[in-house]
Amino acid sequence: MSKTALYAGTFDPFTNGHEDILKRSLNLFNKVTLLVAVSPSKKPLFTTEERLEMLRELFKDDPRITVDSWDGLLVDYAKNNKIDVVIRGLRPTGDFEVEFQMASMNNKLFPEMETVFLMTEGQNYFISSSLVKEVHNHSGHVKDFVPKIIYKWLTKG
Questions:
Q1: pLDDT tens across 113-133, in order?
Q2: Is 89 annotated as a binding residue?
Q3: Is 91 a catalytic residue?
Q4: Is 138 annotated as a binding residue?
Q5: What residues contact 43, with CB distance under 8 A and at least 6 apart?
Q6: 125 appears as a binding residue in the annotation
Q7: Could you give the 3-state DSSP secondary structure of residue 38?
Q8: Do residues 86 and 8 touch, judged by C-beta distance below 8 A?
Q9: Model's pTM, two decimal places?
Q10: Catalytic pick from 18, 51, 133, 136?
Q11: Which CATH homologous superfamily contains domain 4-154?
């Protein structure tokens, strides 16, 4: 298989759950573009540039992973870059309804694009960027929820 897949999210911050989905997607696809989505409705902890920098640092030794950002529709990025598969992670926390709705809209906008859902592994099912930020903002311990490089960024100061 020589397909490239797209794994998009705000990744603010990138968590162990994200990393698990990314690594497992590399078992299915030769290359994955990790796309930092710029969402005007979210208030990020890190700037887009900081998230790009930390992800490029985290995956600098893996040529199968490309890191990029986009502030438009996911389907437009996919069309512009000739990517026809998007990866989405599912947790048993109500993700399915939202993800199904988003996949259906994407399919209507770009019927040639398929969405592949990967279930989050057990040790990561409760981790979300929002919860990591909340715990971090209250001086809680988040080291076990994010990759080491991301943790270093969270504790800079």
A1: 999 999 988 888 888 899 999
A2: yes
A3: yes
A4: no
A5: none
A6: yes
A7: coil
A8: yes
A9: 0.92
A10: 18
A11: HUPs (3.40.50.620)
- For 129, residues 6+ apart whose C-beta sits below 8 A from its C-beta are 9, 10, 11, 12, 13, 14, 15, 18
Q: Does residue 56 have an active-site annotation?
A: no
Active site residue 18: yes
Catalytic residue among 3, 23, 42, 60: 42
74-98 pLDDT, tens digit each: 999 999 999 999 999 998 777 888 8
- Residue type at position 64: R
Residue 126 to residue 53: CA distance in whole angstroms: 26
In the three-class reduction of DSSP (H, G, I as helix; E, B as strand; rest coil), residue 11 is classed as coil
Whether 3 is a known active-site residue: answer no
Q: Is 136 marked as binding a ligand?
A: no
Residue tagged 């990314």 (tokens): 22
Q: Over the Cα atoms of the chain, what is R_g?
A: 15
Question: Which H or E element spans position 102?
Answer: helix 95-109
Residue 124 labelled as part of a binding site = yes
Q: Per the residue annotation, which of 25, 51, 129, 136 is the catalytic one?
A: 129
Q: Cα(57)–Cα(60) distance, rounded to whole angstroms?
A: 5
pLDDT along the chain (157 residues), means of 10: 86 96 96 93 90 97 97 96 95 83 95 94 86 93 96 87
Residue with tokens 């790009």: 52
